Amino acid sequence: MGTGLENRVAFGRRADGQVVPLAVDAGGQLYVAGVSSEVGVAPGVGNVSAPGDNAAATITLGAIGGRHCIGGVAWSYDDDPTGGNLQITVNGLIVFSVDITSGGPGFIPFEPPMMAPAGTPVVITLAAGGAGIAGKVNILSYWTE
């Protein structure tokens, strides 16, 4: 049974300014259309972190026997952040970092998908937005190999 959202059309703006189509799968998960049809939930963690005002939003994918595969990341701040940043580390090394200077939603699809080496943890962190500013971070599509 679907969510009733499967036939809706939406578009989002990537961090580079390009407008891309978004889709909702039968389970209600949002993904960038055409990037990956495999949308899963990170085991034991979930795909969303929304901790509240002035707190970093973090999703930690612990080391597994296989590889963590990420098709994209979305974020939002409810106002313009002070020191806004999205960072991804693999096995403690920064592999992706982008500054975020304005509030509202944004996302980055990874084409090809970001794939961590087998057995390594991945941490996705949206920096605290500042006093009174809440942020959220979401994995758009996730699977393991």
In short, what is this structure?
The chain is mainly β and 145 residues long.
Architecture overview:
This protein is mainly beta. It is 0% helix and 53% strand. It has strands at residues 10-13, 19-24, 30-32, 48-53, 57-61, 68-77, 84-90, 93-100, 104-115, 122-126, 134-144. The strands form three sheets. The chain has a four-stranded antiparallel beta sheet with strand order 4-11-6-9, with no helix packed on it. It has a four-stranded antiparallel beta sheet with strand order 5-10-7-8, with no helix packed on it. The chain has a three-stranded antiparallel beta sheet with strand order 1-2-3, with no helix packed on it. A hairpin with a 5-residue loop joins β1 and β2 (19-24). It starts with 9 loop residues before the first strand and ends with a strand.
Record the SSE blueprint.
Layout: E1 10-13, E2 19-24, E3 30-32, E4 48-53, E5 57-61, E6 68-77, E7 84-90, E8 93-100, E9 104-115, E10 122-126, E11 134-144
Antiparallel strand pairs: 1-2, 2-3, 4-11, 5-10, 6-9, 6-11, 7-8, 7-10
Gyration radius over CA: 15 Å
How many beta-strand runs? 11
Envelope shape: elongated
Strand order of the largest sheet: 4-11-6-9
Q: List the domain count as a whole number.
A: 1
Helix content: under 10%
Please mark out the parts with pLDDT under 50 across 5 or more consecutive residues, or reply none.
1-7, 34-39
Oligomer: single chain
Main pleated-sheet profile: 4 strands, antiparallel
